[in-house]
Amino acid sequence: MAALGWLTPRRRSATARSVLAGEASAEAARKSSQELEELAPDAAVVHAEEPEFPVLGDDKAAAFFDLDNTVMQGAALFHFGRGLYKRKFFETRDLARFAWQQAWFRLAGVEDPEHMQEARDSALSIVKGHRVSELMSIGEEIYDEYMAERIWPGTRALAQAHLDAGQKVWLVTAAPVEIATVIARRLGLTGALGTVAESVDGVYTGKLVGEPLHGPAKAEAVRALAAAEGLDLSRCAAYSDSHNDIPMLSLVGHPYAINPDAKLRKHARTFEWRLRDYRTARKAAKVGIPAAAGVGAVAGGTAAAIALHRRRR
Fold it and tell me: Catalytic residue positions?
């Protein structure tokens, strides 16, 4: 069961901007989910080994999955950035910065606020003036190029188990809601809660609605969506790799730590949450990565960026 100690009053756990971001994301998710129900491709049935859960036919239950390092290896925003670079949306120096942020994220296993702020600002400046429909179309191509092969089969099986039980399954991510919606559709999920970028007449303004869907804002989005959908959160499940998502995980009756960082692993063990780790033993051991290895990975990411640039010349 969820740790009641984390269920603090909203005014202490979330700012007004978090509430706004959560409510905007929930509204966008519900709007897009109707389209996903019609467009979602047939998905292969994969059963998770959880005989007692989820409960078949429980329409008051749903599942909420974090995206980065939970459903997919690495950060969706980084992979999206690679695709935009390939299409000449920005320069090589920007790709090198994305590579550094991705290397940090994958090795440290945590979402650093400073890096997230920088990634958010970069993404907003890149898409400003572009049409939402254009980015959605490009997102479909980028999913095939960089994301499809990075989906964790184990987490995908857990999501499928909820779908097989007749429950709705939502992605909950700080990535732009448009990218998250593409990924959800391609995986056959119900929909996605993501960061909402402001648009006027279908064109991005370069501003956000509220703040990035991160930390407390994710919990607010789940809370808002559950209220709109008539869900009983005590019968719902949530899955994440990051301690930043403890507020979201604590909202539900069935929290899971997936490929957890050190802080989440400790918290999950303390409160007897279920854990799943789909990384290899070698990768799992690197949750507390040595500095020397971090330098090597950053160098590798930068080298990949340079190599990509040279191939395009």
Answer: 66, 68
